[in-house]
Amino acid sequence: MKKLVLVLALVACGPSAGEIKTAKTTTYQMSGSDLLALAEQAAQEEYKLGDVNQQELAFITVPRFYGPEGDLQSPGAGGFVHTENHTVRLAFIVNVTELAGGDCAVTVTPKTFQFISGSPKPRELPSDDPNLPGWIHGRADKLAMEIYELAKPHAYKH
Questions:
Q1: pLDDT tens-digit profile of 114-155?
Q2: CB 111 within 8 A of CB 92
Q3: Where are the domains of the chain?
C-alpha cells in the first residue's frame, strides 16, 4: 500500500495533459526575439545551447546521449560516449513563429538519432515515428512547460 501511495504522489507532481497542451498551444503578446530569449533562458536550465539563429528565431540544444530507458549517458575519457543498442542522441529544436497581429508561438521538436547494433550509422527518428521512445516526448513537453512558465505573463488572454 505504501508503494501505491508513493507512486500516486509522484504522478501528481507532474503537469497534467491539459497543462502540457496549454504550454504547447499558447500564443504570446511579445516580439519573437523576446520570446526566443525567454526560450533560451528556459532551455539553459538543463541543456547547453547549440546554434542560435536570431533571424529565423530558432535554436537547437547541444545533443546529449541517453540509454534506451532515458538515462543520461555521460562522456568518458576523451569525450566519447559508449553507445549500446538503442542508445539515443537527442537535441531539441526550438522555433518561435511570429503570427498575424503581432503574437508569437513556440514549438519544441526533438531531433533524435537511434543507434542500432550492427548498423553502420544511426537512424533518424522523426518526432512522429512510432519507434520514438515515449520519454523523448516527455522531455520535450518538460522543456515546453519551462518556456511557458517563463513566458506566461505575456500569454494571450482570450
A1: 999 888 899 999 999 998 999 999 999 999 999 999 999 999
A2: yes
A3: 17-74+83-154
Burial of 148 (0-12, 13-18, 19+ CB in 10 A): buried
Write b or e for each residue in 99-117: b if 16 or more Cβ atoms lie within 10 A of its Cβ, otherwise e: eeeebbbbbbbbbbbbbee
**CATH class name, domain 17-74+83-154:** alpha beta
Its pTM stands at: 0.86
Extract the C-alpha cell encoding 80: 566519447
Shortest CA distance to 47 belongs to which of 140, 155, 131, 132? 140
The string of pLDDT tens digits covering residues 15-71 is 899 999 999 999 999 999 999 999 999 999 999 999 999 999 999 999 999 999 999
CA distances (Å), origin 91, targets 14, 49, 104, 112, 125: 22, 10, 23, 7, 12
